[in-house]
Amino acid sequence: MGKRTKGRAKGRGNIQYRVRKKAYCYRISYPKLSSVGKAKIIRLINSAAHSTPLAKIKINTEEFFVPAADGIYEGQEIDVFDGKIENGNILILKNIPQGTKIFNIESFPGSGGKYLRSSGCYGLIGIKDKEGVEVIIKRRRVKINENCRAIIGVAAGDGRISKPFAKAGKRFHLMRSKGRRWHYTSAIKTNAVDHPFGGGRGKRIKSKIAQRNAPPGAKVGHIRPSRTGRGNK
Question: What 3-state class would DSSP assign to 55?
């Protein structure tokens, strides 16, 4: 009798798959829309759940966390909403000149940073018109509301993936801090008791087709293909 496939077992809340909340204790957000003026970078934080270092910033009595820009430092003062075009400043898109590098962009005013938050990421300000501000992300061009906020510069931590892990233990501790499952074993290489596809005895092909109305946890393998097998030409 086989067990659940890995795709169905994942995220069910047992010890092996439960996410460690400690890694996700920092919530990335911007201050209130009414917060305008000078802010101060209190602390730079290395978060296990984020590829980019986080910056803890205080404006008036409000504190918030954002991905750190490359080149900022603790104790630095930054501008919020309006100010100079300098690394780390949080400005609205309509006040940022064309060709400026930005990251941590809001999807709509007040949503908090949603786009370009990974280490080394950035976009470029493009054309501005009535429909909004064009942001160039590699080969894509996205229109965003002109009142959305973004951070000037490039997200810190560029070159993070250039250094190899070298040891399996390093990768293990990284994945464990994020609540990710590692390492992976192919289903067909397992024993028959451990997986429906395991054992490898005989050449009988087992169906991998999931029902169309199956719940999300059961939709593994082929999701109701319109046709199967080798087609005749």
Answer: strand
